[in-house]
Amino acid sequence: MIERSDQDGFTDFINQLNGGLNNVELEFRRAQDELNGTPVMALTNTNGQKIAQVATGYTPTELEYFKHLLDAIVMADDEMFCISSTAALHEAGRLKNKENKPLALTKREAENLLDRYIADQWFIRSKAGAYSLSMRTLLELQTYLKETYGDQIQECTLCMEIITKGQRCSVAACSSRLHQHCSSTYFRNMNNPKCPTCHTAWSSKVLIGLSDGASAPSKVRKRAARRENGAAGGEEDDAEGSGRNQDDA
Amino acid sequence: MADRRRRIVVDDDEDYGSRGGGSSQRNTGKRQAPSNNQGSSGSQKRVVRDDSDQDSDSYTTNATRQTTSGTKATDIAPEDFERLVKDVVRLAIFTSHSEQALKREDIKNVLSDHSKLYDPVFQKAQERLRDIFGMELVELTTKGRSGQATEKGAKSYMLRNILPMELLSGGVVNWEAELEDMGLLMVILSLIFVRQGAILESALMSHLRRLSLLEDNSPFGDIQRKLEVLIKKRYLDKFKLDHMDESGEKAEVEYRWGARARVEVPEENVVKFIQEVFGREAPMGLEASILKAAGIKSKDPVEIQ
Protein backbone atom coordinates (compact mmCIF):
# COMPACT_ATOMS: atom_id res chain seq x y z
CA MET A 1 0.00 0.00 0.00
CA ILE A 2 1.67 3.18 -1.12
CA GLU A 3 1.44 6.08 1.27
CA ARG A 4 -0.20 9.25 0.08
CA SER A 5 2.97 11.26 0.60
CA ASP A 6 4.97 8.78 -1.45
CA GLN A 7 2.50 9.13 -4.27
CA ASP A 8 2.77 12.89 -4.22
CA GLY A 9 6.53 12.63 -4.06
CA PHE A 10 6.51 10.31 -7.04
CA THR A 11 4.28 12.65 -8.98
CA ASP A 12 6.62 15.53 -8.23
CA PHE A 13 9.54 13.41 -9.30
CA ILE A 14 7.94 12.53 -12.61
CA ASN A 15 6.95 16.13 -13.19
CA GLN A 16 10.51 17.17 -12.70
CA LEU A 17 11.77 14.62 -15.17
CA ASN A 18 9.13 15.80 -17.60
CA GLY A 19 10.48 19.32 -17.25
CA GLY A 20 13.69 18.19 -18.88
CA LEU A 21 12.05 15.76 -21.26
CA ASN A 22 9.56 18.29 -22.56
CA ASN A 23 12.56 20.22 -23.74
CA VAL A 24 13.08 17.55 -26.37
CA GLU A 25 9.38 16.90 -26.93
CA LEU A 26 9.23 13.70 -24.96
CA GLU A 27 7.15 13.01 -21.90
CA PHE A 28 6.25 10.40 -19.31
CA ARG A 29 2.55 9.77 -19.59
CA ARG A 30 0.72 7.97 -16.83
CA ALA A 31 -2.50 6.04 -16.78
CA GLN A 32 -4.12 3.00 -15.23
CA ASP A 33 -4.35 -0.31 -17.03
CA GLU A 34 -7.86 -0.72 -18.44
CA LEU A 35 -8.00 -4.37 -17.47
CA ASN A 36 -6.83 -4.23 -13.87
CA GLY A 37 -6.26 -0.63 -12.83
CA THR A 38 -2.50 -1.05 -12.31
CA PRO A 39 -0.67 2.27 -12.71
CA VAL A 40 1.39 2.32 -15.87
CA MET A 41 3.74 4.78 -17.49
CA ALA A 42 5.19 5.24 -20.94
CA LEU A 43 7.90 7.48 -22.32
CA THR A 44 6.08 9.04 -25.25
CA ASN A 45 6.80 11.29 -28.16
CA THR A 46 4.77 14.47 -28.00
CA ASN A 47 5.59 15.42 -31.54
CA GLY A 48 4.99 12.87 -34.23
CA GLN A 49 7.39 14.12 -36.83
CA LYS A 50 9.56 12.41 -39.42
CA ILE A 51 12.56 11.85 -37.20
CA ALA A 52 10.54 9.73 -34.81
CA GLN A 53 9.61 7.26 -37.53
CA VAL A 54 13.09 5.80 -37.36
CA ALA A 55 12.28 4.43 -33.97
CA THR A 56 9.43 2.22 -34.93
CA GLY A 57 11.54 -0.66 -36.27
CA TYR A 58 8.82 -1.74 -38.68
CA THR A 59 8.98 -1.66 -42.45
CA PRO A 60 6.46 0.49 -44.33
CA THR A 61 4.35 -2.56 -45.13
CA GLU A 62 4.35 -3.60 -41.49
CA LEU A 63 3.34 -0.10 -40.47
CA GLU A 64 0.55 -0.12 -43.02
CA TYR A 65 -0.82 -3.36 -41.63
CA PHE A 66 -0.57 -1.91 -38.15
CA LYS A 67 -2.58 1.13 -39.16
CA HIS A 68 -5.23 -1.07 -40.76
CA LEU A 69 -5.61 -3.11 -37.60
CA LEU A 70 -5.74 0.01 -35.47
CA ASP A 71 -8.43 1.38 -37.73
CA ALA A 72 -10.49 -1.80 -37.61
CA ILE A 73 -10.29 -1.94 -33.84
CA VAL A 74 -11.24 1.67 -33.26
CA MET A 75 -14.09 1.55 -35.77
CA ALA A 76 -15.57 -1.71 -34.49
CA ASP A 77 -19.33 -1.70 -34.00
CA ASP A 78 -20.93 -0.98 -30.65
CA GLU A 79 -17.71 0.34 -29.15
CA MET A 80 -16.28 -3.13 -28.97
CA PHE A 81 -12.80 -1.74 -29.72
CA CYS A 82 -11.53 -5.13 -30.82
CA ILE A 83 -11.46 -7.49 -33.77
CA SER A 84 -11.27 -11.23 -34.10
CA SER A 85 -8.19 -13.09 -35.33
CA THR A 86 -10.05 -13.95 -38.49
CA ALA A 87 -10.75 -10.32 -39.21
CA ALA A 88 -7.18 -9.38 -38.39
CA LEU A 89 -5.79 -11.89 -40.85
CA HIS A 90 -8.34 -10.89 -43.43
CA GLU A 91 -7.05 -7.34 -43.21
CA ALA A 92 -3.65 -8.52 -44.32
CA GLY A 93 -5.06 -9.24 -47.73
CA ARG A 94 -6.45 -5.75 -48.10
CA LEU A 95 -3.29 -3.73 -47.82
CA LYS A 96 -2.49 -1.23 -50.50
CA ASN A 97 0.50 0.99 -50.90
CA LYS A 98 0.50 4.67 -51.73
CA GLU A 99 -0.09 4.02 -55.43
CA ASN A 100 -3.10 1.94 -54.45
CA LYS A 101 -1.45 -1.29 -55.59
CA PRO A 102 -1.97 -4.30 -53.36
CA LEU A 103 0.82 -5.06 -50.91
CA ALA A 104 1.76 -8.69 -50.60
CA LEU A 105 1.49 -10.00 -47.08
CA THR A 106 1.03 -13.75 -46.74
CA LYS A 107 -1.04 -15.29 -44.01
CA ARG A 108 2.10 -16.63 -42.39
CA GLU A 109 3.76 -13.21 -42.48
CA ALA A 110 0.63 -11.66 -41.04
CA GLU A 111 0.56 -14.16 -38.20
CA ASN A 112 4.20 -13.48 -37.40
CA LEU A 113 3.57 -9.77 -37.52
CA LEU A 114 0.64 -10.10 -35.17
CA ASP A 115 2.87 -11.97 -32.74
CA ARG A 116 5.41 -9.18 -33.03
CA TYR A 117 2.83 -6.52 -32.35
CA ILE A 118 1.84 -8.46 -29.25
CA ALA A 119 5.46 -8.93 -28.16
CA ASP A 120 6.12 -5.22 -28.70
CA GLN A 121 3.00 -4.53 -26.69
CA TRP A 122 0.99 -2.56 -29.24
CA PHE A 123 -1.97 -4.91 -29.13
CA ILE A 124 -3.42 -7.29 -26.59
CA ARG A 125 -4.78 -10.66 -27.58
CA SER A 126 -7.51 -12.10 -25.41
CA LYS A 127 -7.90 -15.78 -24.63
CA ALA A 128 -10.49 -16.01 -27.37
CA GLY A 129 -8.04 -14.52 -29.84
CA ALA A 130 -9.51 -11.02 -30.02
CA TYR A 131 -7.16 -8.12 -30.64
CA SER A 132 -7.58 -4.88 -28.75
CA LEU A 133 -5.48 -1.83 -27.90
CA SER A 134 -2.79 -2.06 -25.26
CA MET A 135 -1.93 0.59 -22.70
CA ARG A 136 1.22 1.32 -24.66
CA THR A 137 -0.81 2.18 -27.74
CA LEU A 138 -3.22 4.29 -25.74
CA LEU A 139 -0.38 6.22 -24.15
CA GLU A 140 2.01 6.54 -27.05
CA LEU A 141 -0.48 7.07 -29.84
CA GLN A 142 -2.91 9.17 -27.84
CA THR A 143 -2.47 12.23 -30.02
CA TYR A 144 -2.65 10.24 -33.24
CA LEU A 145 -5.82 8.46 -32.11
CA LYS A 146 -7.59 11.63 -31.06
CA GLU A 147 -6.64 13.50 -34.20
CA THR A 148 -7.48 10.68 -36.57
CA TYR A 149 -10.67 9.40 -35.01
CA GLY A 150 -12.21 12.39 -33.29
CA ASP A 151 -15.45 11.47 -31.60
CA GLN A 152 -15.05 7.78 -32.22
CA ILE A 153 -12.49 7.89 -29.41
CA GLN A 154 -14.20 8.17 -26.03
CA GLU A 155 -12.87 9.53 -22.81
CA CYS A 156 -13.61 8.23 -19.34
CA THR A 157 -15.92 10.67 -17.58
CA LEU A 158 -13.88 10.48 -14.39
CA CYS A 159 -10.22 10.40 -15.41
CA MET A 160 -10.57 11.88 -18.91
CA GLU A 161 -8.20 9.34 -20.41
CA ILE A 162 -9.10 7.39 -23.55
CA ILE A 163 -11.32 4.46 -22.74
CA THR A 164 -11.64 1.30 -24.82
CA LYS A 165 -12.72 -1.12 -22.11
CA GLY A 166 -15.11 -0.41 -19.29
CA GLN A 167 -18.66 0.53 -18.41
CA ARG A 168 -21.09 2.88 -20.05
CA CYS A 169 -24.32 4.54 -19.09
CA SER A 170 -27.39 2.41 -19.79
CA VAL A 171 -28.99 5.31 -21.62
CA ALA A 172 -28.00 4.94 -25.25
CA ALA A 173 -27.78 8.64 -25.97
CA CYS A 174 -25.68 9.42 -22.90
CA SER A 175 -21.98 9.68 -23.48
CA SER A 176 -20.85 8.80 -19.98
CA ARG A 177 -18.16 6.10 -19.84
CA LEU A 178 -16.12 4.82 -16.93
CA HIS A 179 -13.10 2.53 -16.60
CA GLN A 180 -13.70 -0.43 -14.29
CA HIS A 181 -11.26 1.01 -11.77
CA CYS A 182 -12.72 4.51 -12.16
CA SER A 183 -16.21 3.15 -11.62
CA SER A 184 -15.08 1.40 -8.41
CA THR A 185 -13.56 4.64 -7.17
CA TYR A 186 -16.49 6.82 -8.17
CA PHE A 187 -19.26 4.63 -6.80
CA ARG A 188 -17.33 3.35 -3.81
CA ASN A 189 -19.71 4.37 -1.08
CA MET A 190 -22.89 4.87 -3.07
CA ASN A 191 -25.85 2.61 -2.53
CA ASN A 192 -27.65 3.78 -5.64
CA PRO A 193 -25.03 4.50 -8.23
CA LYS A 194 -26.13 7.15 -10.70
CA CYS A 195 -24.65 8.23 -14.00
CA PRO A 196 -22.45 11.31 -13.46
CA THR A 197 -23.87 12.93 -16.59
CA CYS A 198 -27.59 12.10 -16.82
CA HIS A 199 -28.21 10.73 -13.31
CA THR A 200 -30.00 7.60 -14.48
CA ALA A 201 -29.32 4.50 -12.45
CA TRP A 202 -25.88 3.12 -13.31
CA SER A 203 -25.83 -0.56 -14.03
CA SER A 204 -22.08 -1.46 -14.10
CA LYS A 205 -23.02 -4.26 -16.42
CA VAL A 206 -23.41 -2.31 -19.63
CA LEU A 207 -19.95 -2.65 -21.08
CA ILE A 208 -17.84 -1.36 -23.89
CA GLY A 209 -14.76 -3.08 -25.17
CA LEU A 210 -14.28 -6.79 -25.00
CA SER A 211 -15.31 -8.68 -21.92
CA ASP A 212 -13.24 -11.73 -21.16
CA GLY A 213 -14.34 -14.80 -23.03
CA ALA A 214 -16.74 -13.10 -25.41
CA SER A 215 -15.95 -13.33 -29.09
CA ALA A 216 -14.94 -10.28 -31.02
CA PRO A 217 -16.66 -8.87 -34.06
CA SER A 218 -15.54 -10.38 -37.31
CA LYS A 219 -17.12 -7.66 -39.37
CA VAL A 220 -14.72 -4.85 -39.97
CA ARG A 221 -16.07 -1.36 -40.39
CA LYS A 222 -13.54 0.99 -41.89
CA ARG A 223 -13.21 4.68 -41.61
CA ALA A 224 -13.58 6.15 -45.11
CA ALA A 225 -10.33 7.09 -46.77
CA ARG A 226 -10.75 10.79 -46.16
CA ARG A 227 -7.85 11.76 -48.31
CA GLU A 228 -9.44 10.11 -51.29
CA ASN A 229 -13.04 11.10 -51.31
CA GLY A 230 -13.76 13.17 -48.25
CA ALA A 231 -16.92 11.20 -47.45
CA ALA A 232 -17.62 10.69 -43.80
CA GLY A 233 -19.51 7.42 -43.99
CA GLY A 234 -17.85 4.14 -43.17
CA GLU A 235 -18.05 1.01 -45.22
CA GLU A 236 -18.22 -2.57 -44.04
CA ASP A 237 -16.12 -5.51 -44.97
CA ASP A 238 -17.28 -8.93 -43.96
CA ALA A 239 -14.25 -10.93 -42.90
CA GLU A 240 -16.01 -14.21 -43.54
CA GLY A 241 -15.72 -13.45 -47.23
CA SER A 242 -19.32 -13.65 -48.11
CA GLY A 243 -18.71 -12.05 -51.42
CA ARG A 244 -19.26 -8.43 -50.65
CA ASN A 245 -15.96 -6.92 -51.50
CA GLN A 246 -15.92 -3.16 -51.61
CA ASP A 247 -12.66 -1.41 -52.08
CA ASP A 248 -11.89 1.99 -50.73
CA ALA A 249 -13.38 4.38 -53.23
CA MET B 1 28.39 -14.07 -12.54
CA ALA B 2 29.70 -11.32 -14.71
CA ASP B 3 28.34 -7.88 -14.09
CA ARG B 4 26.41 -6.16 -16.76
CA ARG B 5 29.09 -4.55 -18.85
CA ARG B 6 27.11 -2.58 -21.30
CA ARG B 7 27.83 1.02 -21.80
CA ILE B 8 30.35 1.54 -19.08
CA VAL B 9 32.47 4.61 -19.25
CA VAL B 10 36.12 4.22 -18.37
CA ASP B 11 36.72 7.63 -16.88
CA ASP B 12 35.15 7.96 -13.49
CA ASP B 13 35.25 11.67 -13.11
CA GLU B 14 31.51 12.18 -13.38
CA ASP B 15 30.84 12.82 -9.77
CA TYR B 16 27.11 12.42 -9.65
CA GLY B 17 27.16 11.40 -6.03
CA SER B 18 28.66 14.58 -4.76
CA ARG B 19 26.14 16.94 -6.27
CA GLY B 20 25.57 19.32 -3.41
CA GLY B 21 22.37 20.88 -2.13
CA GLY B 22 18.84 19.63 -2.32
CA SER B 23 17.44 22.41 -4.41
CA SER B 24 19.28 21.99 -7.65
CA GLN B 25 17.76 18.74 -8.80
CA ARG B 26 18.59 19.01 -12.45
CA ASN B 27 22.24 18.12 -12.92
CA THR B 28 23.18 21.40 -14.47
CA GLY B 29 26.62 22.79 -14.48
CA LYS B 30 30.18 22.19 -14.45
CA ARG B 31 31.03 19.22 -16.50
CA GLN B 32 34.08 18.82 -18.65
CA ALA B 33 33.88 17.02 -21.95
CA PRO B 34 35.81 13.76 -21.61
CA SER B 35 39.05 13.83 -23.50
CA ASN B 36 38.14 10.87 -25.66
CA ASN B 37 35.38 12.87 -27.27
CA GLN B 38 35.57 13.52 -30.95
CA GLY B 39 37.47 16.72 -30.27
CA SER B 40 35.45 19.04 -32.45
CA SER B 41 36.77 22.53 -32.63
CA GLY B 42 35.78 25.07 -30.06
CA SER B 43 34.21 22.52 -27.83
CA GLN B 44 36.71 22.62 -25.03
CA LYS B 45 34.87 25.45 -23.33
CA ARG B 46 33.02 24.40 -20.21
CA VAL B 47 29.44 25.41 -20.01
CA VAL B 48 28.67 27.00 -16.72
CA ARG B 49 24.97 27.14 -16.18
CA ASP B 50 23.38 29.39 -13.73
CA ASP B 51 22.14 27.01 -11.05
CA SER B 52 19.37 29.34 -10.05
CA ASP B 53 17.54 28.70 -13.31
CA GLN B 54 15.14 25.96 -12.39
CA ASP B 55 12.82 25.92 -15.35
CA SER B 56 13.42 24.91 -18.91
CA ASP B 57 13.84 28.51 -20.01
CA SER B 58 17.38 28.28 -18.80
CA TYR B 59 18.29 26.43 -21.95
CA THR B 60 17.09 29.25 -24.15
CA THR B 61 18.82 32.02 -22.24
CA ASN B 62 22.09 30.15 -22.21
CA ALA B 63 22.06 29.67 -25.94
CA THR B 64 22.10 33.40 -26.38
CA ARG B 65 24.77 33.94 -23.76
CA GLN B 66 27.16 31.32 -24.93
CA THR B 67 29.36 31.69 -27.96
CA THR B 68 31.75 29.07 -29.19
CA SER B 69 34.93 30.34 -30.70
CA GLY B 70 35.31 30.14 -34.41
CA THR B 71 31.68 29.53 -35.34
CA LYS B 72 28.95 32.06 -35.68
CA ALA B 73 26.40 30.72 -33.29
CA THR B 74 24.87 34.15 -33.11
CA ASP B 75 23.77 34.50 -36.71
CA ILE B 76 20.77 32.32 -36.01
CA ALA B 77 17.83 33.10 -33.80
CA PRO B 78 18.09 31.43 -30.38
CA GLU B 79 14.79 29.59 -30.84
CA ASP B 80 16.03 28.18 -34.11
CA PHE B 81 19.29 27.09 -32.53
CA GLU B 82 17.32 25.43 -29.76
CA ARG B 83 15.16 23.65 -32.28
CA LEU B 84 18.21 22.25 -34.04
CA VAL B 85 19.67 21.05 -30.77
CA LYS B 86 16.36 19.42 -29.86
CA ASP B 87 16.16 17.70 -33.24
CA VAL B 88 19.68 16.32 -32.92
CA VAL B 89 18.97 15.03 -29.42
CA ARG B 90 15.81 13.32 -30.60
CA LEU B 91 17.63 11.92 -33.61
CA ALA B 92 20.27 10.44 -31.31
CA ILE B 93 17.66 8.89 -29.02
CA PHE B 94 15.54 7.41 -31.78
CA THR B 95 18.50 6.14 -33.81
CA SER B 96 19.88 4.49 -30.72
CA HIS B 97 16.52 2.96 -29.96
CA SER B 98 16.50 1.18 -33.30
CA GLU B 99 20.12 0.10 -32.77
CA GLN B 100 21.57 1.96 -35.73
CA ALA B 101 24.60 4.17 -35.81
CA LEU B 102 24.08 7.91 -35.99
CA LYS B 103 25.89 9.08 -39.08
CA ARG B 104 27.41 12.48 -39.45
CA GLU B 105 25.36 13.00 -42.58
CA ASP B 106 22.15 12.28 -40.69
CA ILE B 107 23.00 15.14 -38.37
CA LYS B 108 23.79 17.34 -41.34
CA ASN B 109 20.37 16.53 -42.77
CA VAL B 110 18.74 17.73 -39.60
CA LEU B 111 20.75 20.93 -39.74
CA SER B 112 19.83 21.44 -43.44
CA ASP B 113 20.81 25.03 -44.24
CA HIS B 114 22.70 25.52 -41.04
CA SER B 115 25.37 22.88 -41.48
CA LYS B 116 28.01 25.41 -40.48
CA LEU B 117 26.62 25.13 -36.98
CA TYR B 118 27.41 21.42 -36.77
CA ASP B 119 29.94 21.80 -33.97
CA PRO B 120 28.04 24.11 -31.57
CA VAL B 121 24.80 22.22 -32.12
CA PHE B 122 26.54 18.90 -31.57
CA GLN B 123 28.17 20.13 -28.41
CA LYS B 124 24.92 21.47 -27.02
CA ALA B 125 23.14 18.27 -27.93
CA GLN B 126 25.81 16.35 -26.04
CA GLU B 127 25.19 18.42 -22.94
CA ARG B 128 21.47 17.91 -23.25
CA LEU B 129 21.93 14.16 -23.63
CA ARG B 130 24.17 13.99 -20.58
CA ASP B 131 21.92 16.19 -18.54
CA ILE B 132 18.56 14.65 -19.28
CA PHE B 133 19.40 11.06 -20.18
CA GLY B 134 22.76 10.34 -18.60
CA MET B 135 24.15 9.35 -21.97
CA GLU B 136 26.59 10.76 -24.47
CA LEU B 137 27.46 10.35 -28.10
CA VAL B 138 30.73 8.55 -28.78
CA GLU B 139 32.44 8.18 -32.10
CA LEU B 140 32.66 4.73 -33.59
CA THR B 141 36.19 3.91 -34.64
CA THR B 142 37.46 1.54 -37.21
CA LYS B 143 40.70 0.74 -35.43
CA GLY B 144 42.73 1.48 -38.53
CA ARG B 145 42.59 -1.93 -40.14
CA SER B 146 43.38 -1.61 -43.79
CA GLY B 147 40.62 -2.32 -46.19
CA GLN B 148 38.02 -1.42 -43.64
CA ALA B 149 38.75 2.25 -43.25
CA THR B 150 35.79 4.55 -43.61
CA GLU B 151 36.17 7.57 -45.82
CA LYS B 152 37.12 10.82 -44.30
CA GLY B 153 34.13 12.62 -42.85
CA ALA B 154 31.99 9.52 -42.69
CA LYS B 155 31.97 9.56 -38.94
CA SER B 156 29.33 7.78 -37.02
CA TYR B 157 28.33 7.83 -33.41
CA MET B 158 26.46 5.86 -30.87
CA LEU B 159 24.98 6.64 -27.50
CA ARG B 160 26.76 5.44 -24.43
CA ASN B 161 25.62 5.44 -20.85
CA ILE B 162 27.55 7.63 -18.45
CA LEU B 163 25.78 6.70 -15.26
CA PRO B 164 27.85 4.84 -12.68
CA MET B 165 27.65 1.07 -12.82
CA GLU B 166 26.15 0.75 -9.34
CA LEU B 167 22.95 2.38 -10.54
CA LEU B 168 22.53 -0.11 -13.32
CA SER B 169 23.21 -3.32 -11.50
CA GLY B 170 21.18 -2.80 -8.36
CA GLY B 171 18.13 -4.58 -9.71
CA VAL B 172 16.60 -1.37 -10.98
CA VAL B 173 16.93 -2.16 -14.66
CA ASN B 174 15.43 -5.33 -16.04
CA TRP B 175 18.18 -6.85 -18.18
CA GLU B 176 16.49 -10.22 -18.29
CA ALA B 177 16.14 -10.77 -21.99
CA GLU B 178 19.62 -9.63 -22.82
CA LEU B 179 21.61 -11.13 -19.98
CA GLU B 180 22.30 -14.39 -21.78
CA ASP B 181 23.37 -12.73 -24.97
CA MET B 182 25.65 -10.39 -23.11
CA GLY B 183 27.19 -13.30 -21.26
CA LEU B 184 27.88 -15.04 -24.52
CA LEU B 185 29.31 -11.85 -25.93
CA MET B 186 31.64 -11.39 -22.97
CA VAL B 187 32.94 -14.91 -23.45
CA ILE B 188 33.65 -14.27 -27.11
CA LEU B 189 35.18 -10.86 -26.47
CA SER B 190 37.42 -12.39 -23.83
CA LEU B 191 38.57 -15.11 -26.16
CA ILE B 192 39.45 -12.51 -28.75
CA PHE B 193 41.06 -10.33 -26.13
CA VAL B 194 43.57 -12.91 -25.00
CA ARG B 195 44.44 -13.60 -28.61
CA GLN B 196 45.44 -9.99 -29.14
CA GLY B 197 42.40 -8.93 -31.07
CA ALA B 198 41.45 -11.68 -33.51
CA ILE B 199 40.32 -15.28 -33.39
CA LEU B 200 39.96 -17.64 -36.32
CA GLU B 201 36.47 -18.90 -36.88
CA SER B 202 37.63 -22.48 -36.50
CA ALA B 203 39.20 -21.69 -33.12
CA LEU B 204 36.08 -19.87 -31.95
CA MET B 205 33.88 -22.77 -33.00
CA SER B 206 35.98 -25.29 -31.16
CA HIS B 207 35.68 -23.21 -28.00
CA LEU B 208 31.93 -22.94 -28.41
CA ARG B 209 31.77 -26.65 -29.00
CA ARG B 210 33.60 -27.19 -25.71
CA LEU B 211 30.94 -25.08 -24.04
CA SER B 212 28.28 -27.27 -25.64
CA LEU B 213 26.92 -24.31 -27.50
CA LEU B 214 26.98 -25.85 -30.94
CA GLU B 215 24.49 -28.54 -30.11
CA ASP B 216 20.94 -28.37 -31.35
CA ASN B 217 19.44 -28.06 -27.91
CA SER B 218 21.85 -25.41 -26.68
CA PRO B 219 20.10 -22.60 -24.81
CA PHE B 220 21.16 -20.18 -27.50
CA GLY B 221 19.64 -22.08 -30.36
CA ASP B 222 21.37 -21.40 -33.60
CA ILE B 223 24.75 -20.02 -32.60
CA GLN B 224 25.52 -18.82 -36.09
CA ARG B 225 22.43 -16.66 -36.01
CA LYS B 226 23.47 -15.26 -32.64
CA LEU B 227 26.84 -14.39 -34.06
CA GLU B 228 25.22 -12.67 -37.02
CA VAL B 229 23.09 -10.61 -34.64
CA LEU B 230 26.16 -9.61 -32.64
CA ILE B 231 27.89 -8.60 -35.84
CA LYS B 232 24.88 -6.59 -36.95
CA LYS B 233 24.86 -4.80 -33.61
CA ARG B 234 28.51 -4.02 -34.22
CA TYR B 235 29.71 -5.88 -31.16
CA LEU B 236 31.73 -8.22 -33.34
CA ASP B 237 33.40 -7.87 -36.69
CA LYS B 238 34.01 -10.59 -39.20
CA PHE B 239 36.94 -10.40 -41.59
CA LYS B 240 37.72 -12.56 -44.56
CA LEU B 241 41.39 -13.39 -44.78
CA ASP B 242 43.45 -13.99 -47.86
CA HIS B 243 43.88 -17.69 -47.50
CA MET B 244 41.50 -20.61 -47.43
CA ASP B 245 40.35 -22.36 -44.30
CA GLU B 246 41.05 -25.97 -43.44
CA SER B 247 38.25 -27.28 -45.57
CA GLY B 248 39.78 -25.51 -48.53
CA GLU B 249 36.37 -24.47 -49.66
CA LYS B 250 36.06 -20.95 -48.42
CA ALA B 251 38.26 -18.15 -47.26
CA GLU B 252 39.40 -18.26 -43.68
CA VAL B 253 37.40 -15.93 -41.47
CA GLU B 254 38.42 -14.22 -38.28
CA TYR B 255 36.38 -12.48 -35.63
CA ARG B 256 37.39 -9.26 -33.94
CA TRP B 257 35.87 -6.78 -31.55
CA GLY B 258 33.32 -4.52 -33.22
CA ALA B 259 33.23 -0.75 -32.89
CA ARG B 260 30.42 -0.94 -30.38
CA ALA B 261 32.33 -3.28 -28.12
CA ARG B 262 35.21 -0.81 -28.16
CA VAL B 263 32.81 1.89 -27.02
CA GLU B 264 30.90 -0.06 -24.40
CA VAL B 265 33.38 -2.53 -22.96
CA PRO B 266 36.54 -1.20 -21.37
CA GLU B 267 39.37 -3.68 -21.37
CA GLU B 268 39.55 -3.76 -17.60
CA ASN B 269 36.03 -5.19 -17.56
CA VAL B 270 37.20 -8.04 -19.71
CA VAL B 271 40.04 -8.75 -17.32
CA LYS B 272 37.63 -8.70 -14.40
CA PHE B 273 35.24 -10.97 -16.23
CA ILE B 274 37.92 -13.55 -16.83
CA GLN B 275 38.95 -13.34 -13.20
CA GLU B 276 35.36 -13.84 -12.10
CA VAL B 277 34.98 -16.88 -14.28
CA PHE B 278 38.02 -18.41 -12.63
CA GLY B 279 36.62 -17.43 -9.26
CA ARG B 280 38.39 -19.10 -6.41
CA GLU B 281 40.37 -21.32 -8.68
CA ALA B 282 42.24 -18.38 -10.15
CA PRO B 283 45.94 -19.11 -10.28
CA MET B 284 48.45 -16.65 -8.94
CA GLY B 285 49.33 -13.89 -11.31
CA LEU B 286 46.23 -14.44 -13.38
CA GLU B 287 45.87 -10.80 -14.18
CA ALA B 288 49.45 -10.57 -15.37
CA SER B 289 48.95 -13.62 -17.56
CA ILE B 290 45.84 -12.18 -19.08
CA LEU B 291 47.50 -8.89 -19.87
CA LYS B 292 50.52 -10.65 -21.28
CA ALA B 293 48.37 -12.80 -23.52
CA ALA B 294 46.56 -9.71 -24.68
CA GLY B 295 49.81 -8.10 -25.56
CA ILE B 296 49.24 -5.20 -23.23
CA LYS B 297 52.28 -3.67 -21.66
CA SER B 298 50.93 -2.22 -18.47
CA LYS B 299 52.13 1.23 -17.56
CA ASP B 300 51.70 0.72 -13.87
CA PRO B 301 53.41 -2.13 -12.10
CA VAL B 302 51.00 -5.03 -12.00
CA GLU B 303 50.34 -6.55 -8.63
CA ILE B 304 51.26 -10.18 -8.51
CA GLN B 305 48.50 -11.86 -6.54
Question: What can you see in these coordinates?
Answer:
The longest helix of chain A is centred in the first third of the chain and has 19 residues. In chain A, 34% of the residues lie in helices and 16% in strands. The relative contact order of chain A is 0.14. Chain A has a domain of 137 residues: Winged helix-like DNA-binding domain superfamily/Winged helix DNA-binding domain (Arc Repressor Mutant, subunit A, Orthogonal Bundle), CATH 1.10.10.10. By secondary structure, chain A is α+β, with helices and mostly antiparallel strands. A 3-stranded antiparallel beta sheet of chain A has the order 3-5-4. Chain A has a 3-stranded antiparallel beta sheet with strand order 9-8-10. Chain A has a two-stranded antiparallel ribbon with strand order 1-2. Chain A is built from 9 helices and 12 strands. Chain B is α+β, with helices and mostly antiparallel strands and 305 residues long. In chain B, 40% of the residues lie in helices and 10% in strands. Chain B contains 11 helices and 6 strands. In chain B, strand 5 and strand 6 form a beta hairpin. In chain B, helix 2 packs antiparallel against helix 3 and helix 6 packs across helix 10. Chain B is globular, with a radius of gyration of 22 Å. The N terminus of chain B is likely disordered.
Low-confidence stretches of chain A: 225-249
* General form of chain A: globular
CATH architecture of the domain at 16-152 in chain A: Orthogonal Bundle
Range of strand content of chain A: 15-25%
Helix content range of the residues of chain B, please?
40-55%
Radius of gyration of chain A: 19 Å
- Report the total helices of chain B: 11
Strand order of the largest sheet of chain A: 3-5-4
The greatest interface here is: A-B, 15 and 20 residues
> Which structural category do the helix and sheet elements of chain A fall into?
alpha+beta
* Bulk shape of chain B: globular
Main pleated-sheet profile of chain A: 3 strands, antiparallel
What's the mean pLDDT score of chain B?
Answer: 74
Region (Disordered) (chain B): 1-75
Organism (chain B): Entomortierella chlamydospora
InterPro entries (chain B): MAGE, MAGE_WH1, MAGE_WH2, MHD_dom
Biased composition (Polar residues) (chain B): 33-44, 59-72
